[in-house]
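ok here's BAI1-associated protein 3:
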Amino acid sequence: MTLSLSQQESKFSAILSKRFDPEHGNSFLEAFETVTQKHEQRRQKIKKDEELENEKSPPEYRITFGEKPEGITSKEYELLYIETLYTIKHKIGTTTSKHREGENDLYAYAQDAFGLSPADHRRLLAKASEEKPPILILNIEIVEAKDLEAKDANGFSDPYCMLGIVPEIHHFPLSRQTSGAGGASSDEENANDSKLGFMKRLKSFRKSTIRRSQGREKNASSSNSPSPAASCLRDKLPAKYIQTTDVKKATLNPIWMEKFRFNIESSKTETIHLDIWDHDDEFSVFEAARKLNQVQGFKGLNRYFKQIAQSARTNSNDGSHVDDFLGSVNIKISEIPSTGIDKWFALEGRSENSKVHGQIHIRANLATREDRGVSEEDNWTDIKQHVELLQIFIDHELNTYKGATTEWSGELSRDAETILHQHAIQGDITDIQRKMCRWIAYSKKHLERTLTHRLLLSITEQLEQAWQPTSLSRDESDMLREGFTLFINHCFKQLGRLRELFPAANRLAMERLEQLLTIVGKLHSMEVFRYCCPFQNSLQHELSLIIKAGTIEWFDRMVAEITKPRLRSDEDILRNTSELVYVLIADAHSAVKYYNPVFESTVKLAFYHISFKKIDVKLMEIITKALEEELGEQIYQSPLKLLENTEPDSADIAAFASAAEQTSLSLFELYLSLNELAKYKVYVNETHRSNLKINQYYGYFGVAMKKWLAVVRNKLLHRIEYALDKDKIDSSMNNKFTSSSLDVANCFQQMTQFWKRLAWPDIISSIVFLIRITEDMANVTRLYATLSEEKLNAKKFHDTSDLLFYAQELSLTANNIERIRESFKALPIELGYDKLLVAAEKFHPIAVVDEYRKKIETLVASCSQEISDRIYQIVNKVIFNMEIELKQYLFHVIEAPDASDIQETVLPLLNFLNHQLGSYRELLIRQNFVRLLELIWTKLLDQILAEVEYNGSSRSMASYLRLLKTLDYLTEYLTNDDQCLPKDTLKTDKYRLVKKLLKYQSNDTQSLIKTYYQEKLQEQDRANNSSQSDLGKLYCRAYYHPKQETLYIEIISCKNLKSCDSNGLSDPYVVIQLCPTFLYPHIEKQQTSIIKKTLNPQFNEKFEFRLTEKECGLSGGIVHFVVMDHDLMWSNDFEGEAFLEISKITGVNHDNRMVDELKQIELALTHPKVLRSRIIEILEQRINDKTAVEFVRRRRETENQ
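and the structure:
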């Protein structure tokens, strides 16, 4: 840019004078950087808030939503206490280690848990004592047996069991009598032998007499029973009967899975007795047991077991088919623990000598049936009481627990577990019913007093493991459904306030959220939940609705809190809108980092995808409304169309300058916040991502972007004028720069940071903006260079005698401009234009992208070169002052006596340069010092070249030799460590020309002629390798015979010669001569015959030249071929010439190939006028040298043909 740029921009001064104070001209960009730093601090604050939140205690996440379960009345409370005392009073079974033995301890615990006074306790205990004691019941299940004895011929047995209750344990005298064949052991037995006589006539065993009808579903403890009949408990045979299992055919490991039930009159003395028999199809013990069922009471039961055994022995003696005894088991009722037994028992024989083996698996437990006129099957009241009792005990445990309720493990005391256990077994509450009661009690209590979800999950898993489709009645299922519904609704309401109750960065809160989602997911996946709540929506659907509703409620609340007061200015509107976006950024960060992983791992839901989609539209409505209030309807125009607007900057800036500067910064802050928030869209499902409104957020800032760039450009232009006016040396940079360059370079850096922070998402509009920025910065660079040079010229330092001061000011100016040039040159790279162009190639035509690339690179290159030329122009002022002295020192070198020492001759010139460059070496930066050295080098070369070209005839060869040595000394001086000028920089075309001419001038005539022919050989090689041959080609063979000392040359032909005659043809012949002639004075030239009227003559002529081997090896020796056109009337015409180096001819290098094997040589014909010969020009100046004069004459004649 020239001075006119300053004048052109001055029209904005009036507009900018008030708003854009030059003293603070770069404060606008600094303010942008401040906004950027504030944005970064907000981002960092999110991480710091995470750390702080993690150290906090999680908030109380139990909120009463009005779903607290209804309590029981005071009357029901007393009845429940009476039931508890009744349960304790009538404990059954042996107490295990995990339960409490003493009744008084249990009474005390119950009184404490219920919170009753001693008087109330005694009153209610009396009522409990008035109740009839319960009837004791034994539930027994014959599961299976193994390793029984084989009684049948097939190696198996047909086993079945016979079992009953006996008053006390006896060792039945079932063994064979040694004194008789099978007599009874008492008179009572002999008297009843007649009852068994009919057993011999039974042919088969019928099971119909001992079938049990189907019992209650809830008393079935195994679903793997072989048949419904085998597992039913209803209509059991009374305890006075002996009961039998089914017969299992042909097995030694029978599986029965059959259940029986016996009333117990005295648990202290009675025993359950079991025999295993091998069934035969004839008369057997099976039917005997059926008949014996008619006996009343337990007193005769011992006798009937004996009679059955005696009958078996009698029939055995008769040789008929009877059941064989396989073993027996006796279990004392008093030894059965309250928890029941489930174990394998070894079978016992009739006596110590009996040989039986095998084991039987038995499950047995005690229960009660209260004689209160209530059906035995009805335990619904017991179940409800069990739930209430559990809740009371949970409350009591929580009241006595010293820690937080969320830390309670859920484990009850031994007293509580004992009471609950006794209540369950006395009420005949099954295992699944117990787990159901436990789930309902704990989940309901969770609504009142927060429990850990880990505990609830454990209870849920226990319920799931125990439940079977038919294991609960309708009432029980309804009760469980009510518990599920209360708990699920409570969890959903907590999730609706997720952000408040479960802060994302709080580790404990996240653990609780994960547990909550896990248990909710577990419930929805459980078969029992689907069975009890068949119309419940899918969990994903329910949670999606909750997340959406909760997000909208939270978003609306944030909007209300942030924008509560009516804002008084546009800055407040934009600032608060930015604040809202930052809140959303923090929420997005929390959702992606914390909520998303938890939701995805537990319930397979993408939390952020659901939540952000819901607020996307509402957010952008708020954004566009705020922007429209500030920028008008222009926000809806595309950035590219806005840039196409050719409206002058003055109008644009005038409109923008009227607004407060803070507004533009608030706009930038809002843009940065939206840019940050938009990055989180990658966490929205790809199918919905393209439909998000936030995708086009940047489009609303096109008009703001245009105004930002216009203001920045004009602020920088005015800043330059101010900075140069207040310029001072920057001591921090070794006094090589001034403050103005630092100021402007910082503006470039701030512009780069501004662009990077902007991160404009659209590629094409980004490129257009980048071009606009580059153009603006190019103008800034040009203006700074122009004003800096003008400032230097205005001081007229070239007239001053203080050269050091002049050198310092010149150096500072050059250094400052170079600093800005480097900053500008690096700007597109710093702005990332190359990455933008590469990205654009993926979506736009290559031609369009290449056009953008060319425009940017051309813009940068042209401006950079322009500024570089300006720096050379400034530095060249130093050379202007040195030019006369340089010429004088070179003259001294040239005119020195021939006998003088070359080093001493050159030394004054080097000392002069060293003196002149000393101050600039310290003042100039490296790049500018290199420029100065380049200019000095160029000036020296120009002076030497002028001396060579215009005064060559008047100088001796010795003077040129001194100049050649001087050139080497100068090269060494300029490339030493002090100057650090690269050698490649010195070796320019001019340097090579000067050096070549000096070498020529310093050589004698014969050496020059040899050099001339060497150059001709090089020219020949280039012509041979060229695809074009305008003068045609010569074909020959050459061979040297060492023994004969003869050089043989065969001219074969020529092709494509030029036409020299009017008929379009020629009469060609070839002249062969060995050159230079002073090397071969005795050798005459020879020529071929003339071939008439042809452009492709065939000669096939051989020539001999007598040469010694030494002469063939002379340096510079060549064969010179000249093709001529013969003319009778006029002088012969020149067709072309070619050159062949003698030293490379076959035979000279001892190559002894046969002549017939030689390949023909193809030589392109050339003309001497094609290239200028410096050697000919130098030889022309040697008018006193006959050899030079003669050689030049011949070559000029050839050139002129």
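+1. The domain at 136-168+236-369 is CATH 2.60.40.150 (Immunoglobulin-like).
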